[in-house]
Structure formats: structure tokens, C-alpha cells
Fold:
Amino acid sequence: MAKLRSIGVFCGSRLGERESYQDAAEAVGRAIARAGARLVYGGGDVGLMGVAASTAAAEHGTVLGIIPGFLIAREGHLDGVDIRIVETMSERKVQLIDESDAFIILPGGTGTLEEVFDVVSRQQLDLHDKPVVFLNADGFWDPFVALIEHTVREGFTPQSLADHIRLDDDAESAVRHIMSTMDAAGL
Structure:
């Protein structure tokens, strides 16, 4: 099986309204650490991203946080994990994408959506073929999938992009899918 080095996790800097979102973030951190992969995330110690990263670290996993310096006062950063301080949000996103072999997307707000659209747009443009899995806690990503399907029906998005969107309800299953996809692609 392919050696999975790093999984980027995109998710909220807030916890959200449902406990299931936090449970999903913990499960993702645990699953990535147990797979022996490095968790790459936005660098803060708040919200779902802090939960995922701190869980991975508690499981003795490797964690890389990438955070703009100006956000440290607002979001903090986790002690005991690798932190890379960058200047801008754009620089952070580029490095998050470059440092990741695959992506798991948890619930989040506009920042998460921006990261998601960047990753899937790059995939559509053949700039990467990294696996992307949406952890669909309590159906959070169902409206997103409906929007993508709408853009396909209206002729703005190719069906091939919609076919690459994978929803999963279980973190372990998401990581297994990523590993099998990378193995099948010879990555």
C-alpha cells in the first residue's frame, strides 16, 4: 500500500452548534495519527481544527500547523507540535495544500469553504490528483453536494469533478479510502 505521509484537514476555527462536529474532529485526529500520517492544519488551537490537531498529538501523531503570524493572538497555537508561521492567509493555504498528500474536510465556515473550493478547483484543472474526502457529520456537507450537482446540471462544472467528491460518515473509513485511492493510483 502507498505510504501516506500527510493529510490536510480543513475545518472550522469554531466548534459549531452540534457536538457531533467535535466528535468528528476528534475521530479524524485519532484516525490520522493511527494511520501513521502527519496531520496538516491551519495552526490554531481553537475550534474543530484545534480539536483535530490536539487529538492527533495526544495519540502521539505528527502535526504540522501553518498559521499567519497575525492570527496567533486570536487563535493561539498548540504547544508541542510543529508550527510554521507565514505572513498571509493565501500563503498558509498554498502551504497547506502543498504539504498534504490528501485532504479530509470537516464542517466549517467561509474559510473552510474557500479552502475547499481552491482544492477542488485545482483538482478540476489537473493541478493535483490528491484524494479529497468530506466527513459528513450530521449531513453537514449535503447542501454543498447539492450545489455542486446544480452547477453540473447548469453546465458550469464537469461531471468528473462531482464524481470525485466523496462523502463519508466515519473518519477511519475516510482514511482507509484515501490510502486505497493512493495505492490504486500508485502514489
User: Anything to note?
Assistant: The chain is about 45% helix and 15% strand. The mean pLDDT is 93.
